[in-house]
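Bench log, entry 3. Co-assembly request; chain sequences pasted below exactly as received.
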Amino acid sequence: MAVAKNKPAAPSAPRRAPTDKPGKPDEVPAFSKDDELKAYHDMLLIRRFEEKAGQMYGMGLIGGFCHLYIGQEAVVIGMQMTLKPGDEVITGYRDHGHMLACGMDPKGVMAELTGRRGGYSKGKGGSMHMFSVEKGFYGGHGIVAAQVPIGTGLAFANRYRGNDNVSLTYFGDGAANQGQVYESFNMAELWKLPVVYVIENNRYAMGTSVTRSSATTDLSRRGLSFNIPGEQVDGMDVRAVRAAGEKAVAWCREGRGPYILEMLTYRYRGHPAKYRSREDVQKMRTEHDPIEQVRTRLIGSGMASEDELKKIDAAVRNLINEAAEFATNNPEPDPSELYTDVLQ
Amino acid sequence: MPELTLVEAVNLALARAMADDADVVVLGEDVGVNGGVFRATAGLQRRFGPERVVDTPLAELLISGLCVGMAAQGLKPVGEIQFMGFLYPCIDQLVNHASRLRHRTQGRLTCPMVLRTPYGAGIRAPEHHSESTEVMLAHIPGLRVVVPSSPERAYGLLLAAIRDPDPVVFLEPTRIYRAVKGEVEDDGEALPLDVAFVLREGRDVTLIAWGAMLKETLAAADALADEGIAAEVIDLATLKPYDEETILASVAKTGRCVVVHEAARTAGFGAEIAALIAERGLLSLLAPVARVTGYDTIVPLPRLEQHYLPSVDRVMAAARKVVGFG
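Structure output for the full assembly:
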């Protein structure tokens, strides 16, 4: 009977997941000591920021929602290393890491989480809605995939103005199933727009795994029918991210059009969990943690001592504590702010 | 001064804005080589080049999203959506992003984009090509909604919309694209937004309309004058934010008001105006506010269209009723 024949096949497994990738050291370009230390510091800043934000959210100090980036730090830090002033970064709602990577002040970001006057959006935007034109950060967008045509528009403006700026447009594996992504791919390739689409595949669209929600799970190939090159990257290894990012950004700067990077990554925390086991998360944390990888390399190669890293840890904790303190004590917005910045 | 149709005035304003400001970019389906489905962009690509008059893929959501990104970088994109019925995919970008960019960035960024679309019934087209759902957009904080009703106002209001730092949805009444002609001077002068225009003064009743319905409303005012009823006619022109004071001042004078719109009745913009008058002008009223509107149904095909659209007779009947009230 036709019905039986039409039974869908079981979704295929991802072609390559972070756990499957050997990541042999000789395959990945090495980092200098300075690079490793910078990556360590910057990723740790995000990790500690997010841990603090998670705590403050638990304490009820943060209203609304709070989507933590823990586990994915190597993606934004590696990509940020490939940018120059003038480039744009835009992303979805899991955006704290992107903002810190862009160099936005942790105080201003944390105060926005707590809805305070000193936040980047004066306490009116919250976790998902912050901008900093000075740092090249164009949000922070709460609607899944809606940032993709906007990021493509940022790239259109770059091309129109004839500069060599590149738009880094981040979205997740969930957004990769939204239609406006493909409208954007088509336009970007048609007009050879300088945009790197960075797909952060953390394996779960809210609470549904990629394999259960996607007909094809190799998201780097989603641009093939538009002729957009794409590749999968070990998004847990900051060196691999930077190497792939450099290639993609150079491609865009040369006027060759868009590029897709699928970052195979993993978020440790997030939407209410019934969709994965504690063991799975623990396995990723112990075997693939992006920060531990750098730490192990630094110590193992003798590039840094435990003491040196402890100093970095302490400095980062200090910064985060200051941010939390600021975000707790900064005044709330004045009620008159309800009506400001709606129209001129 | 040359006599132009409304759609020619739109074309003239676009050309003027592009000539004055290199940041103005026109984009949409068929707007370039073909000059637009209604010829609103005819000749612009030849004059300003394909980089500034951009033929986009057939993807409305993309058009609106691109506009937001371009505007965030300081360009002044003017997107075209071929018919209002095709605009709904853009709602995501308009409501969730364009209208909120200023707010989210505390004014550091604004969204100086315009989305133009022909709208309204009366061109013998099927439903999606006849939509009049302006009130959906007027409900959104952070958007301007502007509707011209004459060539002169189309020119001046479109220039204002393009120069405005905030997002504007510019609804062009298809039915009068070529049905009216008027003198338009290409002087680069914008008309004010958020201001209603009193097109005719009268002491007995205030008739409020916008877009193509001004045609029937002005004709009704002419005919009512023959019956000894002096109607004041207001072109609301900007629906969001709208000019409350001009309405209230007129009703204070006349004590009677009829709102005319071709959109469906329930929760149409007429309800907003009636509520405004109830809240702030109740004591001036000598009769209940009346609404002459389309019906709560799908906009019909040509053979029923004339029954759907408010007619001169229906406007006159409503005016007579409020004037004769009590």
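DSSP finds twelve helices and seven strands in chain A. The radius of gyration of chain A is 20 Å.
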